Amino acid sequence: MSSTPFTPPSRLHVVARIAAAMLGGYAFCWGFVALFIASMFAAGMPFHDAESLSYMLAFLHFLGVFLWAVAARSLARVWGVLAGGGALMTAAAWLIQRALL
User: Fold this and answer.
1) 3 state SS of 8
2) Phi, psi of 6, rounded to the nearest 5 degrees
3) What is the pLDDT of residue 2?
4) Is 10 inside a domain boundary?
5) pLDDT at residue 22, as a whole number
6) CA angle, 10 as apex, 25 and 70 as ends, to 5°?
7) pLDDT tens, N- to C-terminus, the chain (101 residues)
8) Domain annotation covers residue 96
9) Tally of domains in the chain
10) What is the pLDDT of residue 8?
11) What is the pLDDT of residue 1?
12) 56: containing domain
């Protein structure tokens, strides 16, 4: 067990962590919603049903992502996963939608 004293994070680190949780979480959930709607519509679910279901799931998804972003050790990993994952899911949704047209 380590005997090093606890040093509180700086204000900049706290602001960066909150920004990652809010903005990165929003981008990640945006990608999730886009991908889920496109996938479910492509699978035959009516559009508005897929939209409603994706928004309900996105609310829970955002809560989990937000809590993970606050609790994770590495802020860089949080930004990478949330921004990168959001971008990848949005791109995948765009490809699915393009294939449907």
Assistant:
1) coil
2) -75, 130
3) 62
4) no
5) 95
6) 25
7) 667 788 888 899 899 999 999 999 999 999 999 999 999 999 999 999 999 999 999 999 999 999 999 999 999 999 999 999 999 999 999 999 999 88
8) yes
9) 1
10) 84
11) 60
12) 48-101
Q: Evaluate whether residue 79 is within a structural domain.
A: yes
Q: What is the DSSP string of 52-101?
A: HHHHHHHHHHHHHHHHHHHH-S-HHHHHHHHHHHHHHHHHHHHHHHHHH-
For residues 84 and 30, give the distance between their C-alpha atoms in angstroms, rounded to a whole number: 12
CA 73 to chain centre: 17
Residue 75 lies in a domain: yes
Nearest to 69 by CA among 58, 83, 79, 84: 79
The letter for the amino acid at 44 is: G
Chain position carrying tokens 């990608």: 31
Helix H or strand E encompassing 28: helix 25-42
